[in-house]
Design a protein that fits this description.
The structure is a single chain. This protein folds into two domains: 204 residues, no CATH class; 115 residues, 3-Layer(aba) Sandwich (name from scop), CATH 3.40.1690.10. A hairpin with a 4-residue loop joins strand 1 and strand 2. Helix content is 66%, strand content 5%. By secondary structure, it is mainly α. This is Flagellar biosynthetic protein FlhB. Pfam families: Bac_export_2 (PF01312). It is found in: Cell membrane.
Amino acid sequence: MEGGQTQERTEKATPKRLRDAKRKGQVPRSRELNTALMLVGGALMLYGLGPTFGRGLMGFMEHALDLGPVDVTDPTAMVRRFHLATQAMLTLFAPFLVGTVVIALAAPALLGGWAMSAEALRPKLERLDPIKGFGRIFSIRGLVELIKAIVKLVLVAGVSGAFLWSLRGDILAPPVASLNQELLHAFHLFGVVVIALAASTFLVAIIDVPYQLWDHRKKLRMTRQEVRDESKETEGRPEVKGRIRQLQREFSKRRMMQEVPRADLVVANPSHFSVALRYEPLRARAPRVVAKGADLMAMQIRTIARDNGVPVIEAPPLARALYHNVELDQEIPAALYLAVAQLLAYVHQLRTARASGAREPVVPEDLAVPEELTGGRP
């Protein structure tokens, strides 16, 4: 039954649902990607700033261990030294700490962006429900997280063991250089190992990111009924939209009919079409179609034109060409200039003759209407 099918979430999330989910804080997140970026960023900073850290630590140790007779006998000396040592360490590691904070804030935005809204920041008490918590632990998602943790542990342990084994000679070799050089060398080895470990976590992130995107889209899937309900909310009910379109057509028709009395002439096909034209030399390059219609509307246009003294000229080929090729409030094409000019000249002569009481001119025949514009339509 259709009622049962509509309960299945088979439809993709609409843009509105995605926006609502982001407002609620439901965006794709990959902790593995965040961890990998943090480790790689920290390792690169550590590798690049290693010599600076080494020299800073050596200077700190020399100053901290240099105790004079006054320092031994003064009870406040150690407090001052501790204060100075804290300032020195914070100054030394400030670039590393700032860089780590920047990476920690920027990494989540790479996948799902930020969801900084009041609704997203509001505490969700249902997350404290122990029953739901156990449900999340023993769910498919919990199983996936367990598999990822095992894979990550195996990778990190394997890469760590392999690098430590390859560097065993450097690590176990007796010191042959000065303390400064040995400390800088230790920082270098530590940076290389951390970069290797961070690179290994990227293997997990490469698998985790597509899964998180797929899982996010799956959780936001909609039923067909939800899609229909959302369409009604955003676009209105079909009957309302139909009524609006009907009112728009009626308004357009009334406005069009109001233009007929101001037309210069109406070109008609007695059985089908009527097209009203107006030419304003100072405002337009060519005559414009101000009203057109077929069948009943065509009869209404002709009636309004006759009631207001607008000449109605029967010219079937020209009426068909104008009706099918020119939209409302649009100038006629150049191919019809000559034919319309003949009718406008006739209208001018007709008005002059009626004003003077002279004999009315003959309606021009054989108008120059290209056959391709009429299309052979009746």
